[in-house]
């Protein structure tokens, strides 16, 4: 009988180390996008991640990064090219933490798992504030209008923002709407112009050559199509990073699925009961769903294992719906997710399905009821 070799007690966990590195990178990046020049020391999470990666490298007999600068250079490299073995790290070989100097969705998801504390506090404080105010005024339509604005307009001019705040539903949350946005970063401006993306309506930023402009949203449905240009003098605002990733990104799928359900003649409600879940379909014996757009099924599984949404007693069926973009990028996404999180497998109270599977199931039930 072969006995498994136990890792030394001093050896860091690879997954936690990468998540800590991701958190440090996000904090480091925030220092630049916040409009203030970066000053030493580096974020503590970056230095701690370097120390832990050094221990892992020594244990594996490979050279470690020599400094935080080298670590940031390594973060641009796909994990498949790292000399370190990253078994059980919840990453795919082609993924990286940085692309063109900016955090990737992989970095965002890893940071979220470990707890990108400052960003999560900002996101949670803002969203909880919106929920509290909407509930206090019994204004579910205000909450829905707030989320729809963030999803549909991740980049917005000052004039357009003011015009949207004239909506009575949004007027209640005017302060929170303004907190959700920040000035477009300096690198987004060239020749007095700010460029946008038609696919996600966010910003297009320059790549390394400073001549090629590209959408930086990994989940954008059409990143190659340029949107309208705005004058920088118009005061272009950009949705804050954590809200772009965890509200606007999955929100595009939420709006798309709700529209598809409505086109089938089925009542669709977004974020009912003040965001108890993402979508409800059918008035009688409703189907309820949380919609997810995480790039990695294993990282999503880890998140889901921390807790699933509460299914209402009157719900006939409950789902985790995976956005179409993720299933197309990873054809075995559902298999990997359900293996890593059996609680959303076949026969469970909440079942993971693809966007297309969900819409087809709604269509079949609607047809059967006619």
UniProtKB/TrEMBL annotation:
Q: Give the matching InterPro entries.
A: pPIWI_RE_REase (IPR040828), pPIWI_RE_Y (IPR041191)
Residues covered by the pPIWI-RE three-gene island domain: 18-157
Q: Where is the REase associating with pPIWI RE domain?
A: 251-369
Out of the domains of life, which is the source? Bacteria
Task: Please name the Pfam families in this protein's record.
Answer: pPIWI_RE_REase (PF18154), pPIWI_RE_Y (PF18156)
Which protein, by its recorded name, is this?
A: REase associating with pPIWI RE domain-containing protein
The species this protein was found in: Kribbella sindirgiensis
